């Protein structure tokens, strides 16, 4: 059964506050057999103290052995079945920057990339080109015209931008053109059905015209397309949990996902400290806060163990300011694991911590993968985390007589 069917019936109102801190890609692996992961290597005195008064476990984002994208990973944390509610990155990015998708739209999250003279990708993110350099390039691509559809191009952040195709009969079952590796060219877009093939032909036309315009650029001389998607229909947090929910994120994709789930995106923070400022300012306005920290993921994808350790320590340093607000329930977790040894998202269970005055504490002394494996929450699907949060906040009534 979908747990949201029960929460609709059982949720009750009170004055409790729930905070979910998501360190993107939090889980990791040791550099050598028997060693420590990034989280275990990091100095995390605040998370360790929180672990001692809370309860630990490990969440499975989708199914054992399945490495999730960021969309499914977060949907699970929000209590939505990520298999039932699959949302493409394009819709997330577009919504995250405030683009209003219509029923005639297919959105695509695009990356600027670098290719060599043979057209093979040498850098999938164009050296993580700065936003002030990439935005003018995205705006320049608004000149591209495609037969039979309207095209909208919007800058996002760094190497990312959004393309939206608008027209009749467009499908979103189009394969990504990003091969997820270097040394090969971008793939041709291919549709899985007639409507999606119409979108794929529009995407191919856009790609050829856009790359011709970019060909003289030093870094961003080509592009890839990912996450072709139409606007999804998700039930809101207010509907399924009875919560006034807010999201505090830096990157547009996570703002978009939260918005699609019915959260109000608040603030315009550019750093973790600024995110906590927003949390403090709006503390009395909402029941639930989702706060997203990106950089434990990006450093893992870069394969930089030491940088991920450093970013984990930065995340830990913010914990006291959150605790000072005295949330009823404080959750710390990630949407998936991103081991620097793998340079990618992985299937490994994600370290998870829940602290409340009524949680059943365990014997764990610190926050790390090994401790979480023996924690009192055990291993469980991430989609059940919200029911645990509601229960610890006293927001669920009894089921049955």
List keywords for this structure.
401 residues, alpha/beta, Alkaline Phosphatase, subunit A, 2 domains, 33% helix
Q: How does this model look, in words?
A:
The protein is an alpha/beta fold. The chain has helices at 3-10, 38-41, 45-53, 70-77, 89-96, 131-140, 194-214, 237-241, 252-260, 272-281, 295-301, 305-317, 319-324, 369-373, 385-392, and strands at residues 18-23, 55-60, 105-115, 121-123, 150-157, 160-166, 222-229, 245-248, 264-265, 288-293, 329-333, 350-356, 378-381. Strand 5 and strand 6 (160-166) form a beta hairpin. Helix 5 (89-96) packs across helix 9 (252-260) and helix 11 (295-301) packs antiparallel against helix 12 (305-317). The two termini are 19 Å apart.
In short:
By secondary structure, this protein is of the alpha/beta class. The protein contains 15 helices and 13 strands.
Question: Looking at the chains present, what oligomeric state does this protein adopt?
Answer: single chain
Number of DSSP-assigned strands: 13
Q: Write down the secondary-structure element order.
A: HEHHEHHEEHEEHEHEHEHEHHHEEHEH
Under CATH, the homologous superfamily of the largest domain reads Alkaline Phosphatase, subunit A
- The CATH class designation of the largest domain is Alpha Beta
- The assigned CATH architecture of the largest domain is 3-Layer(aba) Sandwich
Per DSSP, what share of the residues sits in E-state strands of 2 or more residues? 15-25%
The number of distinct helices, counting runs of at least 4 residues, comes to 15
Taking the alpha carbons of the first and last residues, their distance comes to: 19 Å
């Amino acid at each position: 059964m979908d747990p949201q069917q029960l929460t609709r019936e059982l949720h009750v109102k009170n004055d409790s506050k729930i905070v979910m801190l998501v360190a993107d890609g939090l889980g990791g692996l040791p550099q050598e057999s028997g060693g420590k992961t990034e989280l275990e290597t990091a100095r995390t005195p605040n998370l360790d103290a929180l672990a001692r008064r809370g309860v630990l476990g490990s969440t499975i984002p989708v199914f054992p052995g399945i490495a999730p994208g960021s969309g499914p990973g977060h949907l699970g944390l929000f209590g939505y079945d990520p298999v039932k509610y699959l949302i493409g990155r394009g819709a997330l990015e577009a919504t995250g920057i405030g683009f209003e998708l219509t029923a005639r739209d297919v959105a695509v999250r695009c990356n600027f990339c670098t290719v060599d003279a043979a057209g093979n990708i040498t850098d999938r993110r164009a050296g993580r080109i700065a936003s002030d350099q990439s935005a003018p390039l995205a705006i320049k691509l608004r000149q591209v015209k495609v037969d039979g559809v309207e095209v909208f191009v919007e800058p996002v952040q760094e190497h990312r931008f959004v393309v939206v195709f608008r027209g009749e009969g467009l499908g979103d079952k189009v394969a990504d053109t990003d091969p997820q590796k270097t040394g090969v060219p971008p793939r041709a877009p291919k549709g899985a059905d007639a409507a999606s093939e119409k979108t794929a032909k529009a995407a191919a036309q856009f790609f050829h015209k856009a790359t011709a315009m970019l060909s003289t650029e030093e870094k961003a001389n080509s592009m890839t397309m990912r996450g072709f998607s139409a606007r999804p229909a998700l039930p809101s947090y207010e509907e399924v949990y009875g919560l006034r929910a807010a999201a505090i994120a830096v990157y547009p994709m996570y703002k978009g996902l939260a918005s699609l789930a019915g959260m109000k995106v608040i603030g315009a923070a550019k750093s973790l400290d600024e995110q906590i400022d927003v949390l403090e300012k709006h503390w009395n306005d909402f029941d639930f806060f989702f706060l997203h920290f990106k950089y434990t993921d990006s450093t893992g994808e870069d394969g930089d163990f030491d940088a991920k350790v450093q970013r984990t320590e930065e995340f830990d340093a913010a914990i006291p300011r959150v605790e000072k607000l005295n949330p009823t329930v404080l959750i710390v977790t990630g949407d998936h694991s991103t081991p620097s040894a793998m340079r990618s998202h992985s299937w490994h269970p994600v370290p998870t911590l829940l602290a409340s005055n009524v949680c059943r504490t365990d014997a764990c002394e610190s926050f790390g993968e090994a401790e979480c494996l023996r924690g009192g929450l055990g291993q469980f699907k991430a989609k059940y985390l919200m029911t645990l949060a509601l229960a610890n906040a006293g927001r669920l009534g009894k089921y049955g007589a």
